[in-house]
Structures are given as C-alpha cells and as structure tokens.
Amino acid sequence: MSAHELDHLAIAVDSWSAAGEVLNREFGARWASGFTMEVFSPCQLALANDMRVELLEPGTAKHSFVRSFLAGNAGNAAPHHITFKVHDIHAAIEVARQAGIEPILVNLKHPQWQEAFLHPRDTGLGFLAQIVRAPQNVEELSEQNGQFGDPCPWPEGDAEPSNFALIHGHVSDLAKTRDVLVQVLGAEVFAVPGEASTLGFRWNEGAELLLTEVPEISGPSGIQSIAMLAPGQKELRGHCPEKVLELLDAGTWQPELGLKIASLLPTVDPENN
Length: 273
What we know:
This protein is α/β, with parallel strands linked by helices. Helix content is about 20%, strand content about 35%. Strands 1, 2, 3, 4, 5, 6, 7, 8 and 12 form a 9-stranded mixed sheet that branches. It has a 7-stranded mixed sheet with strand order 10-11-13-9-14-16-15.
C-alpha cells in the first residue's frame, strides 16, 4: 500500500479571506496556519478529526503558478489538488513508476516534508495528486523551524467544526482511475448504492473520494463538490446515503471555493457504529 491518508483538498483562490470566511461561518473550520511566500501563499483550515482544506493564494512573485491556474479558469477559484500522505515517499514514487506514471515536481530535500505530484493526464483523475511524507503537520513544522505565519485574516466564530466526509469528482475513464487509486495510491474500493457509474475510494484516515464516469470533463478540475457531516457525527466509512449524487448535486455552489458543498446524513445503524 502506498498512501495511508487522504490528508487535504487544496483550492486555488484569489484571496484567502472570502473562501476562509465561508468555511468558518458555515462549517466551523478553524484557522490552522498561513504563510505569505514568493511562488504561492498557502493557508490551512482544520475541520473535525484534523481533516484540512488548504487555500492557495498567488504569491508575491509576478510569475506564480496559482495566478496562472486562476487565469486558466477565467480568474475563478477552483480545486487544485488532493494531498495523500505516505509513510515512504521513495517507495511511493517507485510504485508510481512501475505503473507507468512518472512523478513530477519531486522534492526530497527536506526530511520533514518530502513530496511529488502525479499529473492528471497520467492518472485520469482530473486533478493533481500530491503524495507527501510529512511526520508533522504544517504548524508543528513551522514552530520547529522557528517560523511564524500570518494571523487569521477574518473574525473566527466559535462553532464546532463539521466532519469533512467526502470529495466528489468526475472522470472520463473510471476503470483507469480505479487502477491508479488502488495500485498506486493504495485505496480500498467500495460500491455506491444505486450508482453504477460511480465508485467510492477510502484510506485508513481522512475523507473518502467518490468518482463518477462522465463522457466529457469541462474546466480545470474534475472535482465537483465536497460533503460535510454535522459536528459530532462519525465518519461515513463507506456507508454512503441513498441517492448520494442527488444530495451532492443539491449542495450550495460556493463561488469563493469553486465547488458545491453539501451536508450529508450517514445511513448507518447507530447500534453498530
């Protein structure tokens, strides 16, 4: 197995403030860290079980990949990548190469944060997949290195964080994508009730991923929506609600994030959960 956790979803935004305020107000997401950098400026918001959403703002440099990504989407916010954590980055890279996928943007210089990316043209995922070996979270690393990030740029409420349950995306070839997620990223597959063209994927930790096969994918990313459980509700763990795609499609479009957000109630037996 390669990845053991779907760690976070990264979204390219013009500004942290508008997107972060939505996540905090609607779902109780808490500011975890934020850093102004030259190439890109990332911040992370924490939800229940320390599941994260990362917001990528253009960096201070004129040539920023976030600025280019946004320009390719008419200046609108859009999901950029999903990050998977691995225990052994070298082994994960080798597994990808054995599957015929050459990782890009490989950076193994820093023992506490080693990364590589898998391009969507090679995986069929419709979004970048980042694989990371990071024994500590970002704020622990910054404290260890004596670095202090930016303060939260919006007034935070005190609502309890929701549980970030799943991510839903569109792919053009579900069979190919299934092979990549299972063989390269170590996912466990589960069926989605009543949805023949959709499969679910889960890891030991983090959110689950639902992928639906569609004839054509438009836009810079295959990620369409995310779903939250109410505070205190346990993880889905493969127990998707009936008509889950209808629930996701009925979610609220959030232009600040470039996707829909839906609320879900898990169909699980409370006596056995």
